[in-house]
Amino acid sequence: MTRAAVLAGGVGAARFLDGLVRVLPPEDVTAIVNVGDDMEWAGLHISPDLDTVMYTLADMVNPETGWGLRGESRRTLDRLSELGGPDWFMIGDLDLATHLFRTHWLGQGNPLSTVTRDLAKRAGLELFITPVTDDRLRTMVDTDAGEFAFQDYFVRRRASDTVRGIRFDGIDTAQPTPKVINALLEADVIVIAPSNPFLSIEPILSVRGIRDAVVNSRAPVAAISPIIGGEAVKGPAADILQSLGHDVSALGVARLYEDVAEVFVLDETDAPLADAIEAETRMRVVVMPTLMTDVEAKMALAAGTLKAALHDG
Ligand code: GDP
Ligand code: CA
Questions:
Q1: Which ligand is nearest to the CA of 56?
Q2: Structural domain count of the chain
Q3: pTM of the full predicted structure?
Q4: H helices within the chain, ranges in order?
């Protein structure tokens, strides 16, 4: 039996997990998901990364965007626009049910992890999906135009501002959800998914006890680069590397993970960087295709990552 724990943001992580549950029994997989992107929108609690993971694994995701539901409509949002908003956040008609369900049960006093488990169960999922914390944690992005809550920066302002710094509101008091530390300590392998290092992975590692559990776990830790050929597959990861003064490359990412990971999965495009990364960090570099274009590619990346991490050499 191989138990895997995966630190997960949204789209990149969801695609990786979709491959992983096809090469391992899903019940042996724990997804520890970022909640720094969560927000209240029109009174509803929205957890974008949890929903992206859930919709992807349940084969309900919109394949064009990688988030939201397939076959979605926007009648509610259009009517909301006619009323004058708020309409800057895309909430589909079906997606709305998820947010109503979550908000309702949170309002009844249930923790986010319990509501997430219930949603995953209704979706027929066997892997364990959990928010990293049940407590309020909000990523705040400092930019040249001022500080914004994550979704303000990312959706409303289309990630167009230059990022100067990032902080996690609530990080001093946020506690990990009950099963998360054990999942890390008992894992046979820990994977840092190809997610945004600053906006998805750091808010997970920063929760009290998480970084220590990852480092102290007997499991090997493998990180997959979200940067291929100096560019993000999607999203602002490359821009943020640049504006925060890091190398805009997989090497720049590797430096961010050298204290927590021992294996670094590098895209074949970046094979020429392998020697430099191994020389500079203490990580073992493995090179493979990492672009998850279809289900075979997802499975190959999952299998290749497990093999690289579990191999003793
Ligand atoms: P978000 O919440 O959707 O922004 O989710 P993540 O943080 O999980 O994903 C964004 C990161 O995933 C970006 O930096 C992308 O470059 C990376 N990513 C997305 N798809 C892929 C892929 O197929 N391969 C790799 N290597 N990275 C990917
Ligand atoms: Ca996200």
A1: 1
A2: 1
A3: 0.97
A4: 11-23, 48-57, 75-83, 95-107, 112-122, 150-151, 178-186, 202-205, 210-216, 237-243, 250-257, 274-280, 295-310
